Amino acid sequence: MDSLDKLVQIIGRHTPRDGIQPTPIPGIALVRSATPTVPMPVVYEPTLCLIVQGRKQVTAGTTTYVYDAANYLIASVDVPVMGSVIEASEERPYLCLVVDLDMTVLSDLALRYPADDKDGAPAAGIQLGETTPELLDAAARLASLLDAPGDIAELAPLTVREILYRLLIGSGGAMVRQMVKADSRLSQIAKAIVWLRGHYAEACRIDDMADIAGMSRSTFHAHFKAVTAMSPLEFRTHLRLQEARRLMVADALDAAGAGYRVGYESPSQFSRDYVRMFGLPPARDASRLRGSAWAPGDKPDAIRESA
Questions:
Q1: CB distance 238 to 230 below 8 Å
Q2: Which residue intervals define the domain HTH araC/xylS-type in the entry (predicted)?
Q3: 3-state secondary structure of 176
Q4: pTM of the predicted protein model
Q5: Torsion angle defined by CA atoms of residues 46, 50, 53 and 58, in that order, rounded to the nearest 10 degrees
Q6: What phi, psi does 68 have (nearest 5°)?
Q7: Which of 85, 87, 65 is nearest to 75 (CA)?
Q8: pLDDT tens profile 99-141
Q9: Strand partners of residue 57
Q10: Angle 16-18-22 (CA atoms, 0-180°, nearest 5)?
Q11: Which end of the chain is more exposed for a tag (fewer CB within 10 A), N or C?
């Protein structure tokens, strides 16, 4: 049995239902879906998404990524996206292993295995990379620890470290190095993104975000868009609308209340932006979602649905 088949069997055994399944291994989750899903808004945090069966599509701004067992997806910064499973069935469900990116371990690895990477334009915040046999082998050994919980404490950190090492030396290594390099353009943009995620409901000035990133206004705007595929204000709008949608569906707020909560002063502007992103007026969209199978993992605040 090869590593991919082993991963399919293990993940299938440990995901008895659709959705995101936490595991006893810190920073590791499993995802299953027996059917294709409609595009749902989520925010990706720094994460490795390793599909072992099925296919998924993710759109950030105007850029769309499609990946499967041949290619992994890695997110280096917090990015709001629309994600949907596009290939899945009861016989062959979508299965994915999600690994949080441990910045401490990555930093240590980057120091131990330096490279002559020049930090010009920042890498995109989401990239695809080739899923190599070595990466699959390490992932299979990590997943197999779910069948030997007594070994997790000792062996899981070593295997996660190996997975991160494979990312560092693989096709996406340049982006991974930028993540942990304090003075890289990617790290500077990441600081602004962290601030924006905590202040999206406020009136955010571009100059303030540029100061946080340590860049001029024009440089910041260009690099922010290179990383996220969105302008800073478009990014803020995505965060606002995702949270408003969650508030209406999960907390039963009305459209006016949800819009006001996320920073909109004009209900009409909120409605226009909402329709532009989700295709339906806020109240009608929320009613539709409340009447459908809105799984916990599909909520916009469910960061781990990044797979």
A1: yes
A2: 190-288
A3: helix
A4: 0.80
A5: 30
A6: -150, -155
A7: 65
A8: 999 888 888 888 888 776 555 556 678 889 999 999 999 999 9
A9: 66, 84
A10: 70
A11: N
